[in-house]
Amino acid sequence: MQFQVPQFIETEDKIVGPLTLRQFLYVGGAAGLCFLLYFTVQLWLAVILSIFLLSISVTLAFIKVGGRPLIHVALSAFGFYWKPQVYVWQPEHPGTAKSEASMKPLAPAGLSLSDIVSGAALRNVWQNLQTGSKISDKQFLGKAEERYEVFQRQSGERQAARRVDYR
Known about the structure:
The chain is an alpha+beta fold. It contains seven helices and six strands, in the order E-E-H-H-E-E-H-H-H-H-H-E-E. Among the domains are: 14-82, no CATH class; 111-153, no CATH class. Helix content is 49%, strand content 13%. The strands form three sheets. It has a two-stranded antiparallel sheet with strand order 1-2. Strands 3-4 form a two-stranded antiparallel sheet. A two-stranded antiparallel ribbon has the order 5-6. The longest helix is centred in the N-terminal third of the chain and has 20 residues, at 21-40.
């Protein structure tokens, strides 16, 4: 049984001529405001405000940044600058004292606090993650012949894998 998969789901429908509904509302709203300005304020002020309003509406209606409409980018930027930028670290065990004796049970087996601070633990974890086994620095440096390759799955996802040549 075959099913038809919808395509072009991110494309907006053209409602009013070559314009989408969003584009039409931006341009039509600005045109309506310009029409009201013509009858409510002096002509020179109406022209200046109309040029300003129409340029903003055309910019919001037609310009995209990174495939996203400009209004989404502007709202994201406004939210980023308006919200507080405070990042607070919350420890897992706030009641424990921060001494080597109290940190020993929390550390993985075989690691001292000085190893953790110096970054040896992170390096070893990274090596174990990359190779899939626990090896020492000497063994790791000796395996220079191993290679990693990037391959692409049928879904388009790229993934790195260790290449093993059996002799």
